[in-house]
TrEMBL record:
Organism: Pragia fontium DSM 5563 = ATCC 49100
Localisation: Bacterial microcompartment
Keyword DNA damage annotated: no
Listed GO CC annotations: bacterial microcompartment
Protein name, per record: Ethanolamine utilisation protein EutN/carboxysome
Similarity comment: family membership: Belongs to the CcmL/EutN family.
First-listed, main subcellular location of the protein, grouped into a coarse class: other
Assigned keywords, A-Z: Bacterial microcompartment
Entry-linked Gene3D superfamilies: EutN/Ccml
Highest rank taxon of the organism: Bacteria
């Protein structure tokens, strides 16, 4: 899983059938120092109702068509991150 921040929305007027009705969000990975990682921005399918500015967990998986598509999905909205080191 990747810890990320929602940084925007993606609008697609035409989507594959598997993505119809899905909200697509732009997410940027967060590093160990809790800052955004430049060049680590992805498009993810929102499955939890996340919004811009939310801290989220993103999972990469083969979901739509295992032979053709590799999708990322937002699976949780993070309330708090606590580091014990």
């Amino acid at each position: 899983m990747i810890l990320a921040k929602v940084t925007g929305h993606v609008v697609a007027t035409q989507k594959s059938d598997e993505l119809r009705g899905c909200n697509l969000l732009l997410v940027t990975a967060i590093g160990d120092d809790q800052t955004l990682i430049k060049d680590k921005t992805y498009v993810a399918v929102d499955s939890v109702g996340a919004g811009t500015g939310d801290l989220v967990l993103v999972e990469e998986y083969f979901a739509l068509n295992k032979d053709r598509y590799k999708a990322m999905s937002i699976v949780a909205i993070v309330e708090k991150v606590q580091r014990d080191c």
